Amino acid sequence: HDQMMSTKALLKERTYLDPERVGVWGWSGGGTSTLNLMFRYGDVYNMGVAVAPVPDLRLYDGIYQERYSGTLPENAAAYETNNSITYAEQLKGNLLLIHGTGDDNVHYQGTERLINKLVEFNKPFDLMSYPNRTHGIREGEGTSLHLFNHMTRYIENNLKPGAQDKAIS
Question: What is the pTM of this model?
């Protein structure tokens, strides 16, 4: 919520920013934040790239997650409230999911659950999976270059750079 409020304040304060071309991207926890912003605040964010996100906190490292969210099943309601997958039905903008299928930190299974939810709700999205790549998605010749070129193309295609022709009223 704080990131969304900050974005709205910037858009209001800096009129040269285009509110129809606001994008967000993040990796790991930042990918999770990207999902939350896209799913909960689609009126603000038009495009997102979520790399190796944690859409379902129940699938994340118990030692880390339980430190902040408590244990299951005692805190199941908090997990549900804080899972970005809970809000997948509200997706409005363009979303690119990227994940390594061999992720040893944020398991690919969470992205699969999110894919199933987005399909269930008939929400369009784009997916790029990197076979047998871990959380850093850097194994294999050309992987990093491909990953960042793919992200760049997605951003350029969905948030057209440069001045936009707009009718002045």
Answer: 0.90
